[in-house]
């Protein structure tokens, strides 16, 4: 993956977007020593979100199955936010 600074990314943004969209080449953009972002295509982002959702569903199913086998104690939640927090996953629409 190519890594560039934010100043260079601004200069080359059109090219970087084209490469991300057509060649699926991600670019790591650094703003400072500890601030980084990755430019990817919308298709790649959609796939990433799909994989994340599938992983979270599998984790929930594993925990439900574990409770069904008596390996854990079932827990009741008053809100969806409490449930997501308990399982350590972000609520849909929440930024990670």
From TrEMBL:
Protein name listed in UniProt: Antitoxin
Family assignment from sequence similarity: Belongs to the phD/YefM antitoxin family.
Function: Antitoxin component of a type II toxin-antitoxin (TA) system.
Pfam families referenced in this protein's UniProt entry, alphabetically: PhdYeFM_antitox
InterPro entries from the UniProt entry: Antitoxin_Phd/YefM, YefM-like_sf
